[in-house]
Structure formats: structure tokens, C-alpha cells
Amino acid sequence: MIEVEGLSKIYGRGVAAVDDLSFTVAQGKVTGFLGPNGSGKTTTMRMILGLERCTAGTALVDGLPYWQHRQPMSVLGALLDARGAHPARTLREHYRALAAVGDISSRQVEQVLDMVGLEDVAGRRIGDFSLGMAQRLGLGAALLGNPGTVMLDEPVNGLDPDGVLWMRTLLRRLADQGRAVLVSSHLMSEVALTADHLIVIAGGRLLADESTPRFLQRAGSRGVLVRSPQVDQLRALLRTLYTELSEAQRAQSRVKAADGGGLIVHGITPSLLAQAALRSGVELHELTPLHETMEDVFMRMTAHAASAAPRE
Ligand SMILES: Nc1ncnc2c1ncn2[C@@H]1O[C@H](COP(=O)(O)OP(=O)(O)OP(=O)(O)O)[C@@H](O)[C@H]1O
């Protein structure tokens, strides 16, 4: 479990990379840590690991600063930089060296090689690994101590679609085993399918800390897609309907041409449109309410934060 309280990092010239962040990463869940590039995700993770001194606040793992644990590898496993391993070593040598430091058995090394699907290349030099293999290697290194908490910085970078699916499945499994899993990304679409909980930051500040279904409730309407073979009659009908709206409702309403024919109508509900079409004898072939995706909500949220006043 990770508990972050009032965490801040101010670099030279007073720039706050992380600004008064508080959140908890709970056991048994995948928590997505989302923010645009440069929003402070890596700096936060480095402070949790004690690799970066915090300007203010605390970051605890299972109730203690990470570096105070006697067996840190069995408390938290982290993947921050997949290219951090010595290129001349073989994968098995690398894991055995890490295992020796953490008092970890060679049986566990073999189990992890199997878990990350790298058994067949365990005798190969790490320097010859592709980025995708290096990501798996780094994830395996994080799992060597069988930790209760796993923290991964952009783990799907460099993975092909099969690798991404594999990573998602593994993260789910780790959480289902009762571990706390924190996984960062700058793309909502990457974590939306796996994360139970989302922490969203921009400019080092917390924007959202809520369950994924709750975040999804923020998705607004993107209008109604209407297709009809009688487009001119449909447009005339919409003009009539708009005159019946209040002035405030009219300010929200507009009609746009949709890709592949049809219209996207804002400001009129699907049921009102269907009733009016039926009354006027306008034939409809499609009437689909459109909603923002999670990516849309994320972009809207972070763009809004970016346009806010910069911090000193
Ligand atoms: N050592 C440093 N000295 C000065 N500024 C830094 C340092 N490390 C990071 N920063 C700045 O702090 C801010 C947050 O960076 P950070 O790498 O934590 O963001 P991030 O969300 O992980 O981004 P990315 O997704 O691009 O990795 C950025 O503006 C970055 O330029």
C-alpha cells in the first residue's frame, strides 16, 4: 500500500514539478496514474522510492518510507527505467545478482523468468534485448522479491499489441493476488481497460482520484447522430424544433454534418427527435446518442488545467 500526503517537489527556479499531492494506492486494485507528459508522474514515483528528496510531504509504503524497510524488494517492486540493467550481463545473471542483494532464492528467479515469458532468452545478453523485452525484464526484476506493492512507470512503452495485452493481463493478475498496483501512463486508453481506480494529475497537481466507473460518469454528451434518406426535410424539422427551445437551450444547439452522411445534432434529446420525425413523416435510419470517451474526458480535464495560471 502506498500513502502519499502533501507531496511536493520544487526544482531550481521555483518550478513545482509536484504540487501538494495526496493519494492512496490500495491493495487488490490496479490504480492508473495518469497525466500528460511532464505532469510529474515520474518525479512522484521517484520520491516514493526515495530516489528524489521531496520538498514537502510524505510518501509511505506499508506505513514506512521505502528506504526504511529491511527487505525493500519484498515490499515494493518498481519499474522506472527499463534500460537500467547492465548490457553485458545475461538476463539470468542480472536477476541472480539482484536476487543476491535481496536474499531471494534462485527458484524464485526461475519462477519470475517464467512469469514474464523470458525463460527462452534468459541466457542472452541484455544489451541485445528489444525495448519490449527490456520492459518485460524490468517488470520481472520488480517482481523478484514477490512484493505486496508494484509500481510501474509507462510499462507498455515499446510493447507491440500482443505485449500490451499481455501486460494488461499480468497487471490484473497481480491485483487479483491482492497486491497494490500503481501504473503510470500519459494515455487514458492504455489504462482505462485495466485500472479499477484512477489518479489524474496535470502540472503536478491532483485533478481526480476516483474509481474508473465514477470517472466514466464525467463523460458528457457529444450530440445525437441522425441518419435519414430525407436530409432536407430533417434539417427543416430541426430548424422548427430549435425555435421551440428556450433561449438558453438554443445557445447549446447546433447541427453538424457527420462523417459518412447524416447529421450530429446538439441540444435536442433522441426521444424528442424521434417523436418529431414520426409526427412529420421523416424517415430515420439511425438515431444514436454519442458520448465522450474516457480519453475525451481526460483531454478536456488536463487541457483545462494547462490553461490555468502557472505556479511559482
Ligand atoms: N531533475 C530535474 N530538474 C529540473 N526539472 C525537472 C527534473 N526532473 C523533472 N523535471 C521537470 O519536472 C516536471 C515533471 O517531470 P516528470 O518527468 O516527473 O513528468 P512525467 O509526468 O513523468 O512526464 P513523462 O510522461 O514525460 O515522463 C517536468 O516539467 C520536468 O521538466
Describe the structure.
The structure is a single chain. The protein is of the alpha/beta class. Among the domains are: about 140 residues, P-loop containing nucleotide triphosphate hydrolases (Rossmann fold); about 70 residues, Alpha-Beta Plaits (2-Layer Sandwich). The chain has eleven helices and 13 strands. The strands form three sheets. A six-stranded mixed sheet has the order 5-6-7-3-8-9, with helices on both faces. A hairpin with a 5-residue loop joins strand 11 and strand 12. Helix 2 packs across helix 3 and helix 8 packs across helix 10. The chain is elongated. The model has no long low-confidence stretch (mean pLDDT about 90). Pfam families: ABC_tran. Belongs to the ABC transporter superfamily. InterPro entries: AAA+_ATPase (IPR003593), ABC_transporter-like_ATP-bd (IPR003439), ABC_transporter-like_CS (IPR017871), P-loop_NTPase (IPR027417). This is ABC-2 type transport system ATP-binding protein. GO terms for molecular function: ATP binding; ATP hydrolysis activity.
